[in-house]
Amino acid sequence: MANHESTSEKRSKPPLRVRLAVIFMSVVFALLVFEVFLRAVGYTYPVFYQPDEVRGYSLWPGVEGRYRREGSAHVRINSDGLRDREHARSKPANTFRIAVVGDSYAEAFQVEREQAFWSVLEAKLRECPALKGREVEVINFGVSGYGTAQELLTLREKVWGYAPDVVLLAVTTNNDVLDNSRALKLTDEIPYFVMKGDQLTLDDSFKGTAAFRLRNSALNRLGRWLREHLRFVQAIHEGQGAIKSRLDAWRERRRLEKEKGQANAPAAEAAKINGAQADAAAGPADELGTANAIYREPSDDVWRDAWLVTEKLVAEMNAEVKAHGARLYVVTLSNGIQVFPDAAAREAFARRAGAQDLFYAERRFKALGEREGFPVYNLAPDLQAYADRTGVFLHGFGAQRGNGHWNEEGHRVAGEMLTRQLCDWLAPDSEAPHD
Q1: How buried is residue 15: exposed, middle or buried, by Cβ count under 10 Å (0-12/13-18/19+)?
Q2: Which backbone phi and psi does 401 adopt, to 5 degrees?
Q3: CATH number of 73's domain
Q4: Cα–Cα dist 402/335, whole Å
Q5: Does 359 share its domain with 279?
Q6: 9 and 62 inside one domain
Q7: How many whole angstroms separate alpha carbon 65 and alpha carbon 310?
């Protein structure tokens, strides 16, 4: 009797392959429902970057979606891999073209394209008397995380195809110098320039690293395609990023709590506001922090070399711009602490950083321009004066006001100030170099 019941159970129990098929179909159905739900609510976290054989990584042409890691904006990468609208390669007649080269401040994922400083610049420059009767076109080549080395390569790989009249180099003193040093950047997955004697030499050994080969592999390309086209894959990836972000934020809070015991209240506040780790989970795209050494004369060989390489790179950029019959204009941007609308907090931070003030890098870039023959506009002092006068936060969003990248107001004010300076430089009687 017992043997008969055992035989009946075996007959009624589905084969293993049938059970596995049911489980598989259930999972597929659940993911399909999840995918439909995510699309219905407008959820999107696309991959904006791709491996690049020349620059390490670049923006992925045609990708679009909402960026929410800092601020919130609809971002679309055009067909040539620029965070901008479409632009014809051939320059239209009677058009004055400006190419903006920079990092995440120029990329400006945190705000809508129309709010970015280069869009403000384009609109406002049409009122400049020096450009009367001409169309003004500003093209944005900014990519987050780029240092001057990758910006020089961008100039060579992308910019010259558009025949600009002016190349506007947007310098983020927060980390551009650091980004040009392997010892400070601490990554082998991007190109660098190094000094060989007194000559700059390209080091593109990143192409041979296992990490870059993996990122450029067929398997990784498949993963990027899946993430681009499937919202539930994006959700899984963002969930992993959120966990990492929370862990990084917890570690940062612990560090700040330790510092509070050693510093007065204004200094502790300044440490939190220092235009630093805006979004630790943002991958290659976001600026990962400021090295306080940027605010003072370098005191070790690593920082001295980083500055030397940076200055050589900008000088090389100037020479190439001149060779193409264009003009190089340089603007140094701002870091959160520089324009935080509280002088006591700024002064406390400067003391803790061992700095006389927060504009050492600005003065150094200005001196470089005077030596090499290109104009430099230090934007941060003017933005600081505006913040002090109005009490407005120009960096950060919501609870992170004062920290991170420019917000909408920061872009607007910077764009207007930059317009006035460029219009002065373009005037026929300006001392800035002309064609």
Answers
A1: exposed
A2: -55, 135
A3: 3.40.50.1110
A4: 9
A5: yes
A6: no
A7: 34
Domain co-membership, 8 together with 122: no
pLDDT digits (tens, 9 = 90+) for 178-204: 999 999 999 999 999 999 999 999 999
Q: Give 298's contacts (C-beta < 8 A, 6+ positions apart).
A: 304, 306, 307
> 98-108, pLDDT tens digit by residue?
999 999 999 99
Cα dihedral sign for 223, 224, 229, 234? positive
* Residue that the structure tokens 């005077």 belong to: 370
Residue 171 lies in a domain: yes
pLDDT at 226 > cutoff 80: no
Residue 17, C-beta contacts closer than 8 angstroms, at least 6 positions apart: none
Check whether residue 11 and residue 84 sit in a common domain: no
Q: Which two tokens stand for residue 37?
A: 């739900």
Parent domain of 369: 49-426
Give the H/E segment covering residue 222: helix 218-229
Report how many helices (DSSP H) and strands (DSSP E) the chain contains, helices first. 16, 11
Type of residue found at 234: Q
Among 308, 360, 368, 305, CA closest to 335: 360
Crossing angle, helix 301-323 and helix 360-372, to 10 degrees? 40
